[in-house]
């Protein structure tokens, strides 16, 4: 659980910093800022609600992603998506990242490369967080510690996020600076689908086992 949360926080922070440095789309910057604020709330919830020992240390195996927060998640995320859409409608085409290989007026500076590498750190951490969750599900063979609603929303969000980049960056000079963010969104879609499959697969197995025990 800690690994998932830490991967997510590092991914969101580097996502925000990298997007700001390279001058990414306003929707990317707004989304990254929202993710960081959500991380703060998640971490506070984790510290407040996780079972602790007498010394105040969080016990292993505690659950941060349980579906008890499903209603709240479904209420907050659409609001953020509407705000993002409103910001996107007010964005001009000139907001597309201007740093390109062929533009002599905007040379590739060291600041750009720092932002680009931060984008890669973000993408790798997003992928790592999913891999950690998949391995955890395999070990426990139980979906009880998984919020399926969160991953369904993540699939929708990452799909539209990747499409927004693809529709605005139409040439290679505009695409390659965005590759780390494409990896961080489109790259985790398959992993999120795998997590969704695990949820329904292990839920079915657990229901069948419970039915057998009752008999």
UniProtKB/TrEMBL annotation:
What sections of the protein cross the membrane? 20-44, 74-90, 110-128, 148-167, 179-200
Principal localization reads membrane
| Location of the protein in the cell | Membrane
Instruction: Identify its membrane topology class.
Output: Multi-pass membrane protein
Q: Which GO terms describe its molecular function?
A: basic amino acid transmembrane transporter activity
Q: Which Pfam families match?
A: PQ-loop
Q: What is this protein called?
A: Cystinosin/ERS1p repeat
Can you name the source organism? Kipferlia bialata
């Amino acid at each position: 659980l800690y690994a998932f949360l830490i991967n997510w926080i590092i991914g969101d922070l580097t996502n925000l910093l990298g997007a700001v440095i390279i001058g990414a789309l306003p929707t990317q910057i707004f989304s990254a800022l929202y993710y960081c604020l959500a991380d703060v709330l998640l971490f506070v919830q984790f510290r407040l609600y996780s079972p602790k020992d007498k010394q105040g240390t969080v016990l292993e195996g505690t659950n941060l992603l349980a579906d008890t927060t499903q209603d709240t998640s479904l209420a907050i995320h659409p609001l953020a998506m509407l705000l993002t859409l409103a910001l996107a409608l007010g964005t001009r085409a000139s907001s597309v990242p201007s740093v390109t290989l062929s533009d002599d007026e905007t040379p590739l500076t060291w600041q750009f490369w720092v932002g680009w590498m931060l984008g890669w750190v973000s993408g790798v951490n997003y992928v790592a967080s999913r891999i950690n969750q998949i391995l955890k599900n395999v070990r426990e063979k139980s979906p009880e510690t998984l919020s399926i609603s969160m991953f369904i929303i993540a699939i929708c969000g990452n799909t539209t996020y990747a499409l927004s980049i693809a529709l605005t960056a139409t040439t290679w000079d505009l695409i390659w600076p965005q590759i780390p963010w494409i990896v961080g969104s489109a790259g985790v879609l398959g992993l999120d689908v795998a997590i969704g499959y695990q949820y329904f697969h292990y839920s079915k197995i657990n229901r069948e086992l419970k039915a057998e025990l009752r008999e």
